[in-house]
Design a protein that fits this description.
Layout (H helix, E strand, L loop, with lengths): L1 E3 L2 E3 L1 E3 H4 L9 H6 L5 E7 L2 E7 L21 H6 E7 L2 E6 L5
Length: 100
Amino acid sequence: MINLRNNIIPVVDLKKRLVIRENQNNEIQAATSNGHFMILVAQVNHETVGFIIDEVMEFHKVSRSQIEEMENRDLLERRVFLGLALIQDQVVKLLNIENI
C-alpha cells in the first residue's frame, strides 16, 4: 500500500505475482536497495492500483481489434495475458491487469 495524494492504494509487485525470478546479478535488489523503485499507477475496474515495475520504455494505445488471441496457452497464460499485439513491427504480450 502507498499513499498517493492522500489516497491509500494497493500496490502489486509484478515479479512476485507473475513468479519472475531475479537474475544472477540480483538486479532487483540493487535497484531497490536504496529505497527507490517505480510504481505504475492504473485504473483497474474503477479502482486505482499501483504496479511495481523495472522501467517504462514506451506507452502505446492498443484497440481491441489489434489484439490477437494467443494459441496453445496454458492456464496461467490464459489468466495473465490478454493476447498479442503487433506494435512497431514487434509482437508484444499484453498483460490482463484485471486478473493480476
